[in-house]
Amino acid sequence: MGNIDKDRIVCRCKKVSEGTIIEAIKNGADTYEKVKKETGANTYGCFGECKIVCVNY
């Protein structure tokens, strides 16, 4: 796991933070698709940032 900055915005379109993605994972979102559905992240062009958080966590 890399450095965690829970306040860092990883989806600028929907203003989803790294912490929000981590919470979704902790709450059972066990695939990238589930994380996207629960958080609203990756609606547009931030695919790389969001996926990196999921993979690293």
Textual characterization of the structure:
It comes from Clostridium perfringens D str. JGS1721. This is Conserved domain protein. It is a single chain. By secondary structure, this protein is mainly alpha-helical. It has one domain (about 10-55): BFD-like [2Fe-2S]-binding domain (Arc Repressor Mutant, subunit A). Helix content is about 45%, strand content about 10%. It has helices at about 20-25, 30-40, 45-55, and strands at about 10, 15. Strands 1-2 form a two-stranded antiparallel sheet. Helix 1 (about 20-25) packs across helix 2 (about 30-40). It is globular, with a radius of gyration of 10 Å. The termini are close together.
Question: What is the fold's blueprint, element by element?
Answer:
Elements: E1 9-11, E2 16-17, H1 18-26, H2 32-39, H3 47-56
Antiparallel strand pairs: 1-2
Give structural attributes.
mainly alpha, 3 helices, Arc Repressor Mutant, subunit A, globular, 57 residues, two-stranded antiparallel ribbon
Which blocks of ≥5 consecutive residues have pLDDT under 50?
none
Physical arrangement of strands within the biggest beta sheet = 1-2
Classified by CATH, the class is Mainly Alpha
Q: Could you give a short account of the major beta sheet?
A: 2 strands, antiparallel
- Overall morphology: globular
Q: Report the structural category.
A: mainly alpha
Pfam family, one: Fer2_BFD
Protein name: Conserved domain protein
InterPro entries: BFD-like_2Fe2S-bd_dom, BFD-like_2Fe2S-bd_dom_sf
Domain BFD-like [2Fe-2S]-binding: 9-51
